[in-house]
């Protein structure tokens, strides 16, 4: 009877150790984010949180962000992104087919360029190199790596370092270049009423659950973003989340990214750091070429194109869009397209160009 009752519970209460680990992670992330914010650094909350938690993880602290908290943070981020929707942003959708097509080509070239570098310079096998060179979709890439007998630790280091570097460096690069504000302005001037906030949360959770049922990528974030966009775009809701709630979501995203280092040993990280930096440089060089093409052939803001074409994780890049006042619809559409492209194309690329399954079985 006790087993049946326990199985009906929606979740298990975390142990004291897990609770303390989560609390420590959030405190470290908040401290790092506030320090960066006080210093006036661009993208301060997410970058500072990520770097502080990452350092703690490398130092051996048991940092972690549990699934329920991760989902909550992603929903809050989605609501915040959807609250900046306007008719002006929607009018720019006409430029998307061209830029998404160029993004697909950029992703293809970046993947092959990075994988070629890893094979020629660092002696990686083709399967591991292709999987490490694929930008984004880390969970799908990890599954393929296990199935194909690839170098999972090496792939994880390369993929994680790419996200870490982009999240930390991209805001500073944009600010130094003068194409994005050094401190992200407030994206909403008013706070929604309690009733509107309740409506936002309810609609966002409902949309997220629907997307999750159909296995839509990044369902928690995109479901909330879609629901919030519809409510704000239709004029049914006015205002957004309080600034402190948005700040909490940015700190949470940063802590989540930084906590990835908790699964890595220092020896593993050190052994693959050169491969990670080199392949990152190749990916950035390829992306820069396509960013230049888009900037010269369309009217899209250069800062929007840079973040949309940056080969980083969807949640991190959308969080940067939020803090840097960059068009979240444009960035979200392109990173979602890249995720779908990588998810669909990578298995075929690995099958055609990677090691044969017979080699893996042997």
Write structural notes for this entry.
- The chain is globular and about 60 Å long.
- It has helices spanning 2-7, 16-38, 44-58, 67-82, 87-91, 96-122, 126-133, 138-147, 152-176, 194-213, 219-233, 243-258, 266-297, 302-309, 314-323, 328-353, 357-361.
- It is mainly alpha-helical and 362 residues long.
If helices are DSSP runs of H or I spanning 4 or more residues, what is the number of helices? 17
Count of β-strands: 0
User: What is the residue-averaged pLDDT?
Assistant: 81
End-to-end C-alpha gap: 47 Å
Label the overall shape.
Answer: globular
What is the string of SSEs from the N terminus onward? HHHHHHHHHHHHHHHHH
Major pleated sheet: none
Query: Uncertain runs with pLDDT below 50, 5 residues or more?
Result: 1-11, 182-188, 356-362
Question: Summed up, what is this model?
Answer:
The chain has helices spanning 2-7, 16-38, 44-58, 67-82, 87-91, 96-122, 126-133, 138-147, 152-176, 194-213, 219-233, 243-258, 266-297, 302-309, 314-323, 328-353, 357-361.
